[in-house]
């Protein structure tokens, strides 16, 4: 059915926009199930493509704000989804519009206190900025269900030992989990890599308490500046400090200087931030 939709549309995907259209109905059902939608839920969808996921969301009673960057698809979406009065098609770059703006402009008067969800088949090249865009927003979504590259999704959900900068950010704000693995053949055109459906249950408050979130992530960024190096060396280089001084501060934070950034837990990053914050402000 979905292959036929692509043929009928006559649409040719743009590689530079990372356009890969979902053609596997079972994967669509996995996404919708993970979103745990209730009638009237507000959903922001990013990169609606031909509207396969958009229609699925609407049929489950969601009020959908479908944000699409490609002007060629906006007109097609408006025609295809005209029968769904609670679907809003927005021609915009999701990174240049805030969630609050989308909510207030498309469903004015709705109770923001009820929250909203993000559900999307994300173009791979904007995965990290999109996650940051929503996790750092006010208001934040209550849940995100997104299709991402397999390697990236596994890193986001990984524990200490395989953490990345994006892992720390995602787990600071949410509880990520992989819902399902998705082969490249589930898309047209097929990407060169496999994907996963990633669910992020967003916390009402961050997982750990820090008084300066920006300063905390400054420390994390410095720590991951050379992720293959020992923290003693990566922080010394990034902060322009003597390695011996960095090693002393790491020990003060209770962290072995020879460890690497990928091995630290959120709690250990907090201890590192407490000790190094004055040096980051002055660096």
- Treating each run of at least 4 consecutive H or I residues as one helix, how many helices? 12
The count of strands amounts to 9
SSE order, one letter for each helix or strand: HEHEHEHEHEHEHHEEEHHHH
Question: Into which percentage range does the β-strand content fall?
Answer: 15-25%
In oligomeric terms, what are we looking at? single chain
User: What is the CATH-assigned architecture of the largest domain?
Assistant: 3-Layer(aba) Sandwich
The largest β sheet comes out as:
7 strands, mixed
The low-pLDDT segments are none
Radius of gyration: 21 Å
Structural class assignment = alpha/beta
Please give the domain count: 2
CATH class of the largest domain: Alpha Beta
Please specify the SSE layout and strand pairing.
Blueprint: H1 2-9, E1 21-22, H2 25-35, E2 42-46, H3 52-59, E3 63-68, H4 71-80, E4 87-91, H5 99-106, E5 117-121, H6 127-135, E6 143-149, H7 150-157, H8 165-173, E7 174-182, E8 187-188, E9 195-202, H9 213-223, H10 231-239, H11 243-252, H12 266-281
What does this structure look like?
With 283 residues, the chain is of the alpha/beta class. The chain folds into two domains: 2-202, Rossmann fold, CATH 3.40.50.150; 213-281, Helicase, Ruva Protein, domain 3 (Orthogonal Bundle). The chain contains twelve helices and nine strands. It has helices spanning 2-9, 25-35, 52-59, 71-80, 99-106, 127-135, 150-157, 165-173, 213-223, 231-239, 243-252, 266-281, and strands spanning 21-22, 42-46, 63-68, 87-91, 117-121, 143-149, 174-182, 187-188, 195-202. Strands 4-3-2-5-6-9-7 form a seven-stranded mixed beta sheet, sandwiched between helices. A two-stranded antiparallel sheet has the order 1-8. The longest helix is centred in the C-terminal third of the chain and has 16 residues, at 266-281. The model has no long low-confidence stretch (mean pLDDT 90).
